[in-house]
Amino acid sequence: MAYANQMKLAIAACHAFAACIVFAPTARAQSDASPVRLETTVASITVSYTGQGSDPAIGSFYHFAARNNSTKTVTAFHIFQIPDSVQKTNGKYACDATCVGTALIADAADPMIKPGEAFDLHVPIEDAARWPAIWMDAAIFSDYTYEGDEKTAAHLALTQIANQAEYDRMKPVLDRIAAETNSSDNAKAEELRSELTVMSADVEPELIQRFNFWFPNLPDCGHEFARVMKGTSVAAKHVVERELDKFTSGAYGAETFAQWLVTVNAYLSKGHIGCPGCAALPSGAASASSEFQPCPQAAVPAANSQNTSNPNN
């Protein structure tokens, strides 16, 4: 299952196997019947087919609208592309490695779907035969609720929380270096590189509290929650490190460090790494546990009631 961060507009979730769903608002054409089945187990979101369209990047596509019918803001959701070989079990697709999962993760300041609005999904026609079904299996909301599959929603939340934490670590550093007046662009770039090298990606207690407040009954049976959070934080930091490498190598041309910072700050917010003021714990979260919940122990078999130590029994 993939849980990669995606930008909200002009998002292409393309895979080496030729699977590609594009998420971007474009003009729509005729509304013929679609061969792609759109299903959702997210109660507040309805998905409807609205016609065909075309785009220079992907060619002809089927267009669908995912509408948020709730009064809450959708900050992330997850979808699967489903082949015919995967069948439903108890009302859900029993996905395996042949399904293609894509996570769309934003934040409260610039969410995926605002209340009453819709999000555009474009399915290239050439992919429809191989993946004839699309299933939205989970979504999370800005009020610390979720709908759909709990484990999938938890992964969305883990990623969102870790992204915000790394944003809150990086943003003050970027702002402080930008405000320096006595340093050259090269000196500022090297200072930022040094700061990023030592910057923590640890999973701090308040991050776990936020998650446990959101998912109070979900144990970490695979010991994966901390790994997901730390991996997300490291990846978010690498975004800035990668762009810094481009700047120092001259890939940004004559752009000054100050201009480069404007670009990076725009990416951090519009790329949904985080948003200003979004880190405060919600009311009640401070009382949540600061440790991930352990997996319940398997029941110990009851002792044999027969006393096998007595050879006369």
Mind explaining what this structure looks like?
With 313 residues, this protein is of the alpha+beta class. Helices cover 31% and strands 23% of the residues. The strands form four sheets. Strands 3, 6, 9, 11 and 12 form a five-stranded mixed sheet that branches. It has a three-stranded antiparallel sheet with strand order 4-5-10. Strands 1-2 form a two-stranded antiparallel sheet. Helix 2 packs parallel to helix 5 (225-248). It is globular, with a radius of gyration of 23 Å. The N and C termini lie far apart (55 Å).
The number of distinct structural domains comes to 2
Shape field: globular
Strands, total number: 12
Low-confidence stretches: 1-20, 23-31
Query: What is the helix/strand order?
Result: EEEEEEEEEEHEEHHHHH
Q: Give a short account of the largest sheet.
A: 5 strands, mixed
* Amino-to-carboxy terminus distance: 55 Å
By secondary-structure content and strand pairing, the structural class works out as alpha+beta
Beta-strand fraction estimate: 15-25%
Number of helices: 6
